[in-house]
From TrEMBL:
<dbReference type="InterPro" id="IPR001732">
    <property type="entry name" value="UDP-Glc/GDP-Man_DH_N"/>
</dbReference>
<feature type="binding site">
    <location>
        <position position="326"/>
    </location>
    <ligand>
        <name>NAD(+)</name>
    </ligand>
</feature>
<feature type="binding site">
    <location>
        <begin position="150"/>
        <end position="153"/>
    </location>
    <ligand>
        <name>substrate</name>
    </ligand>
</feature>
<feature type="binding site">
    <location>
        <position position="153"/>
    </location>
    <ligand>
        <name>NAD(+)</name>
    </ligand>
</feature>
<feature type="binding site">
    <location>
        <position position="30"/>
    </location>
    <ligand>
        <name>NAD(+)</name>
    </ligand>
</feature>
<feature type="binding site">
    <location>
        <position position="202"/>
    </location>
    <ligand>
        <name>substrate</name>
    </ligand>
</feature>
<keyword id="KW-0560">Oxidoreductase</keyword>
<feature type="binding site">
    <location>
        <position position="255"/>
    </location>
    <ligand>
        <name>substrate</name>
    </ligand>
</feature>
<feature type="binding site">
    <location>
        <begin position="247"/>
        <end position="251"/>
    </location>
    <ligand>
        <name>substrate</name>
    </ligand>
</feature>
<dbReference type="GO" id="GO:0003979">
    <property type="term" value="F:UDP-glucose 6-dehydrogenase activity"/>
</dbReference>
<feature type="binding site">
    <location>
        <position position="86"/>
    </location>
    <ligand>
        <name>NAD(+)</name>
    </ligand>
</feature>
<dbReference type="GO" id="GO:0051287">
    <property type="term" value="F:NAD binding"/>
</dbReference>
<dbReference type="InterPro" id="IPR036220">
    <property type="entry name" value="UDP-Glc/GDP-Man_DH_C_sf"/>
</dbReference>
<feature type="binding site">
    <location>
        <position position="319"/>
    </location>
    <ligand>
        <name>substrate</name>
    </ligand>
</feature>
<dbReference type="InterPro" id="IPR014027">
    <property type="entry name" value="UDP-Glc/GDP-Man_DH_C"/>
</dbReference>
<feature type="binding site">
    <location>
        <position position="35"/>
    </location>
    <ligand>
        <name>NAD(+)</name>
    </ligand>
</feature>
<dbReference type="Pfam" id="PF00984">
    <property type="entry name" value="UDPG_MGDP_dh"/>
</dbReference>
Amino acid sequence: MRITVVGTGYVGLVSGVCYAKLGHDVMCVDKDPGKIRILNEGGVPIYEPGLRELIAEVRQAGSLSFGTDLPNAVRRSELIILAVGTPPLPNGEANLAYIDHAALEVAEAMNDRKIIAVKSTVPVGTNERLAGLMRSRSAVAFDSISLPEFLREGSAIHDTLHPDRIIIGADSEEAANKMLELHEPLTDRIIVTDIRSAEMIKYASNAFLATKISFINEIANICEKVGADVSQVAEGMGCDRRIGPSFLQAGIGYGGSCFPKDTNALIQIAGHVNYEFKLLRSVVEVNQDQRFSVIRKLNAIFGGELEGLNVAVWGLAFKPNTDDVRDTPALEIIGRLLDAGAKVRAYDPVALDNFRTLLGREGVTWCGDAMEAAQGTDALCLLTDWPEFAGVDLSRLQAAMARPVLIDGRNVFQEKELLGTGFVYYSVGRPSLN
Ligand code: NAD
């Protein structure tokens, strides 16, 4: 199939590459010429494990190309996939300006019947609205498909090639069948729905996962007060097949470009039909507060006096294996530390440059490795569970720090590893050592 993917970000690039891997003829277009130049020179503008190698492989095979010429790409394609960003507006609603613009550009370029599939996460009813917009610009017939994306950054290629399910929201049987054919090599769990239900499945899935995270974080907070261990609690809960073990890791809460934005957007979607989504509002509130548990613990240890304190921060990305810093908890935590007059030494294996740009303020020493960040500090806050942190030599770490205070925001270490070491150790929902 000849496919154009519009938007070459985390979703568009990975999807485009994976469709090419399946043998389709894919053109990835982006309005950002800088991104396209990097890709055409053999580079990759984002960090995603395995992506560089897979791009090289499919380009070698001649099934993937990159460009900025959207009209040309559209004319040569049977399927156009929209994967542009839908970032949050200040009121929590999804900003649909990019997808509206992309849809209009596609409409103006269409020369014969196309399938238009929306992979971007968009509020219920958006596909219908986009179709109306496109019809106002073009007399060429097309079929609309809602094709929500469920990949996780950090394991995006695996998730795309081995998805738990594919959801195809369609209003035409013919287009639905073509999409079924396209995705059949990936999984036998393909569900065809109406378009509005497909749009809702995406929001409901993310909202449910966010709910699991906030739920276990509240259980963790109670565990801290009653002397229980949330890791054991989560293991015990997760064995129940009705509950399942995933998304029950207590920590400093979710971040990233999806859960915060999609939970807020769903609250707005509900609000527009006069439904107050009370449960989801609480999920968001709990998540916001959970970030600051790190600050509360530091305050408890240092008697509320953080001024002049030297604090190491390990991990800036919102989760491991990505350089994405959109809505990462580290941003607000470091902001609070700086506001309180602390000095911060920060390290992340791949997200440091992106984070530095995002933070946009002075007061942080950017470090090239974890030990350098810990050097001479009074406390260390671990905010992202990058695997390299778990393997750190604790006696070296202790020797590097001025005071061995470890706030483990992701429960990376086990209490038994730290027993007798002299570390003051606080994790989330587990007994502290002090
Ligand atoms: P992104 O910001 O990384 O990429 C979007 C790209 O679209 C950018 O490169 C931008 O330049 C390009 N773009 C915008 N307007 C364009 C236009 N008119 N023509 C061509 N290119 C254009 O975004 P992302 O993280 O890939 O997310 C894309 C969508 O997928 C969002 O709706 C998001 O909610 C959803 N989603 C994201 C993830 C994820 O993990 N990142 C997972 C599932 C779903």
